[in-house]
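Two proteins were folded this term; both appear here.
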Amino acid sequence: MRNLVNKLPEQIKHAVEIADNAKLDNATQPILNVCISGLGGSGIGGTIVSQLTGDKASIPIIINKDYSLPSFVNKDTLFIASSYSGNTEETLIALEKAQKSGAQIACITSGGKLLEIAKANNYNHIVIPGGYPPRSAFGYSSVQLFRLLTHYNLIDQEFRTDISRVYSHLIEYKEEIMVDAEGIADKLLNKIPIIYSDAGFEGIGVRFRQQINENSKMLCWHHVLPEMNHNELVAWAKNYPETAVVIFRNEDDFYRTQKRMEFAESQISKSTSSYTEIWSKGNSIVERAYYLIYLGDWVSVILAEKQGIDPVEVDVIGILKDQLADL
């Protein structure tokens, strides 16, 4: 896993090349909304990309992480099925429903049933390299989402430019990120991590939580501001020495949210001895997001190593899939 995380910048560079060479047909009719369906490592890209592009998207982009679909999905919907293996059952069942609804369909996958369906129906699809744990193919899958959304002119073309600059940005800060990740991992070791961020970067917090869950084999939770100021903040009236707080911050977080973050720190710091602010770096929201993702990925792997556990192993998920196959 260390090697896979180490090569995320190169993966993103390769992903951009794949995206640039993708052959895609135009929409059959105007698209009025987008539904991105995917789970786990295949789905987090949709969550993050939808948030990064949300305020500049020309139409609503919603994320689906279930077997079912919203009732509004129809011929005016672009339905994007993202499954790294191509065999994620929830995504395949949702895809079947999208087909029945008449939605316009595009797929991102490395193979499996999803690729078979895409080819059989002449759906727009982008094939990415296989052989990785899905969460380690984040660079491949997330970049293709930018490609699809720009292809259909649903987001500004500047996002393709921004994503093309992520490789050099991560290479520039790589050594600094690794040093910071080591220190953060020390603070989280033998603690319950709690992750906070601005609501617009919730996907980054979710990614970090998922990486800690799968790579570090640790429970943790996340919340966002300003929402946590209306509930969870009250719970910090007690002392929680077993916790370690990490908050992701950005220079362009809304100014009132920044004030809320500062107040939250003043209260939370009284209840835990570990409170770490992590400021993103980058010239665009895309660069800043991938900076935090790369840092979080490194923290999760280093945490696993410090515990002497295998960050790749996720046997329990395979056991669940075997049991579901018997239904």
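Next, the second protein.
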Amino acid sequence: MRKFLSLLLVCALWLAHGDVIHAQDPRDPYAYRFVPIGSKFDNPLYLTHAGDGSGRLFVVEQAGQIWIMYEDGRTLDQPFLDINALLTDDTFRGGYTERGLLSLAFHPQYAQNGAFFVYYFDRDGHTVLARYRVSADDPNRADPNSGVILLRIPQPFADHNGGGMQFGPDGYLYLGVGDGGGTQGDPEGNAQNLSLLLGKILRLDVNDLSADRYAIPPDNPFVNTPNARAEIWAYGLRNPWRISFDRETGDLYIADVGWAGAEEVNFVPRGSHGGMNFGWNIMEGNNRLSDKPLGADYVPPFAVYDHTQGCSVTGGYVYRGGQLQALRGLYFYGDYCNGNVWIAERDRNGTWQTRLFRNTRRQISSFGEDQRGELYLIDYKGYVLRLQRA
């Protein structure tokens, strides 16, 4: 009887304190939570930092404003930059749209040169890459008259118009460009067409800040290929909405939003010479859609999920912060439609393991990281959340 009562006591303690016992696993998702910080924003799409040691975070709103927020949640009263006058009216009509101000990237030497880059959809049906400078008088305001358009890409449809934008460890700007949209699965075959920039990752040299155009890195893979655009670094993508580099290894992660049945994340190790084909619209995830040949350049995704688990993948980051040591080296990604967040890890043999981290019940439009490598989640409904211990 005494043993039975002891067992009952243990069970009662387990039920009463199960969350504590459950959290002893340092990678247990319930040991962590995404916590809202700061003000509510209007349709935020992205968050990044300037790399200048200021502790500032820059929040991108779809309607064309960039706001400065500090890590304690304090947000400045005036936007860093406001370009809503340059954007298509679709952005302001309410309802869902993939257009607007889509991404932001600060030059690696921003602290010295004050240059940054924005990626948006203009009034004339183009995706635009433009360079701006910070104001000479106020580090918290950009010079609105400093804008220089470096690239304009005509778009055939109203979706898949942009994508992620990141500087790589090589100092070049990597730009994700969607296939141009359409409801029939890239009906014009743009993603496999090397004479077009649609459905690609571009690699551009934007380091001459006096130029009104970008340069082509001489080692881009299609520089010497007849009829191919030299800007192209990789192709066969549908909607590479968010891309990121692992700040420690230099590996590249590309989350590509799917069409009828699958979402995928692609991996490119540092040192790659580019030229890879990620398969769209011959492949979607691991599903073959066409009998057209893929060729030797095809690279399959490392992570795939079907539309019973979500409907629009949002790429994230490899966690490299210092606050959550057990999570270092894990790649976080999510789904816009249902708020799922997954983690992925590659072992020494190159085998990937992925698992559901938790459901956030958020509309995940993006992830972000601060200069220290701490991870943020952007909820399209208006919130910025930081990952921290529960």
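Confidence is low (pLDDT under 50) at residues 1-24. Helices lie at 2-16, 18-22, 110-113. These notes refer to the second protein only.
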